[in-house]
Amino acid sequence: MQPFLTLVRRELGSCYVSLIGYVIVAAVQFLLGLSFVIVLQALVNKPFDVPVTEAFFNNGLFWLVMLLAPPIITMRTFALEKYSGTYETLMTAPVGDFQVVLAKFTGALCFFMSAWLPLLAYPFLLKRFSVDLSVVDTGAVGGTFIGIFLFGALYISLGCFASSLTRNQIIAAMLAIVIGLGLFLLSYLTFIIPPKPGWQSALLQHVSMIEHMKDFTRGTVDTRHAVYYLSLTGLFLFLTLKVVESRRWK
Amino acid sequence: MSAPTTPMIEVENLTKRYGGRAAVRDLSFTVQRGEIVGFLGQNGAGKTTTMRMLSCFMPATSGTARVAGFDVFTQADEVRRRIGYMPEGNPLHVEMRVREYLKFRARLKGLSAGRSRERVDIVTEQCGLGDVATKVIGTLSGGYRQRVGLADALVHEPELIILDEPTKNLDAHLTRAVRQLIKDVSKDRTVFISSHLLPEVELTCTRVIIIHQGAIRESGTLDELQRKMSAGQQVIAELSGPVPDLREAWEHMAEVEHFDIAAAEGNFHRCSLTPRAGVDLRPQIFELAKARGWQLRELTRTRHSLEDIFVHVTKREQDEA
Question: What dihedral angle (degrees, nearest 10) is formed by the CA atoms of B3, B9, B10, B11?
Fold first, then answer.
């Protein structure tokens, strides 16, 4: 346990001492702030029937952040260590491969979640300045954060996997973006394929991230969604572990 | 804890193949506790590969290696706890501060918070890092970085230290400083050090293993290697005797295989004598000079430097190939 915590601390520390960490936090804040303003302006004078959280968190800017931030956070996890050679000092220390993988994932996920924390202020801003106090539902905010966490966990584990495959950070980031985008674009198939009843559209409903996020932002945490994301996260962590272990395959 | 009588490193028929090419072939050697062993070879001879296998970074294709009695493949955790390994090029987290880095490494290696503080203080002192303890590693000079790497290898009090090319890319002064440091820290532990620099090994190690193209060519203490090489060794004596007498004396000395006499300054003659293998001619020459009443102003044995031995050993290999 101690090596694990030590590693998590180092991973988090390395995010906060590097410029790239602050660039990510600043970019996330900028894009979300922008989306906040856009949503507010669009909604200011007309009645609307969707929760604010949905209008706010299920739009293009939100998904841009969701798709771009994790690969940039995780691209360094393994690739940089391999490139600089510190991978060798790390893997010859008495630490298990699984501890290393899990620590890198946990560190990156904690950093990713911390970049979203300022968002908690937005509901209070809305409550303070809105006439209708019921406009922000605590359940919806909670569901939204659970959604962000689940999406984040999936994309961070995917990023760790991509990073473990190469010693080049750029390749790691590109790979993670391509796979991540591929997963996300599955949602658009529901728009392209005409919705006719059948197993295809049922399947697409189950893997559509946009649909899932719609539920989360309405405060509905569907266990099926949670299981979907957690198992994909588990799969990518398992693959990462196998790549790390492959060093010791004969 | 394993019995202190087991050798520190036991390697048996260790082989590592990359694709079809063997980087290390059928390596077998033993390092006893307390030894400082130099692992000498040209670039690409298989030094780093061997060290990576010993430090559990990668597995061997075949053969076994044990550190302190633990198998490096099946008991990797036990082995890793017992070794301090500094890889080639001494990779460090350049964005961390020296003390912070050492603390991180100590905690990673399982030391408790209090113990790691203690140990970091000790190795900081030991490696002369006191002045730079709060500096960012990336801003340090090569010599200091090397010390940080060494401090990291030492921080958890390992029984065995494995150093891969510890003085690579350092200038003469720094090399000397790092070498002294290695000597200091090696007093109470086993050190296994690789190098392609001969003086390095000659000055620090008690025993040398010469590896060439993935296989061991020679191994032994420097003296043993000298003796093995003594076939081509000469003794130089400058004596004041007349040439015919000298010639006659050497012809009668059974241990002299070949001799050469040349005039030297004054009344002296410079004799180059080639002894039969393994014989030290010097006492006999001294006795001869005493008996004949000749003056003896120089008596030396041309010692082979490790460099000669190395060139000899690796050249033989190339000739055979």
Answer: 160
CA B81 to chain A, closest CA, distance in angstroms equals 6
pLDDT of B316 strictly over 70: no
Cβ contact (<8 Å) for B95 and A14?
Answer: yes
Higher confidence at residue B76 or residue A200?
A: B76
Q: Give the pLDDT confidence of A150-195 residue by residue, as tens digits.
A: 999 999 999 999 999 999 999 999 999 999 999 888 877 777 766 6
3-state secondary structure (DSSP) of residue B155: coil
Across the range B125-143, mean pLDDT stands at 88
Region of residue B220 (phi > 0: left; psi between -120 and 50: alpha; otherwise: beta): left
- Enumerate the domain spans of chain A: 2-248
The CATH number fitting domain B230-301, selected from 3.40.50.920, 3.30.530.20, 3.30.70.3100, 1.10.10.10: 3.30.70.3100
Whether the predicted pLDDT of B188 surpasses 50? yes
Q: Between A100 and B266, name the one with better pLDDT.
A: A100
CA distance B265 to B215: 48
Measured CA angle at B137 (ends B135, B141), to 5 deg: 95
Rounded distance, CA A108 to CA A96, Å? 19
Q: B9-221 has which fold?
A: Rossmann fold (3.40.50)
What ranges do the domains of chain B cover?
9-221, 230-301
What is the secondary structure of B208-246 as a DSSP string? Answer: EEEEETTEEEEEE-HHHHHHHTGGG--EEEEE-S-HHHH
Contact B83 A92 (CB under 8 A): yes
Provide the pLDDT for residue A71. Answer: 93
Global ipTM: 0.85
**CA B249 centroid distance within chain:** 41
Report phi then psi at A70, rounded to 5: -60, -45
Angle B5-B11-B12 (CA atoms, 0-180°, nearest 5)?
115
* Candidates B93, B104, B152; nearest CB to A6: B104
* pLDDT value at residue A117: 86
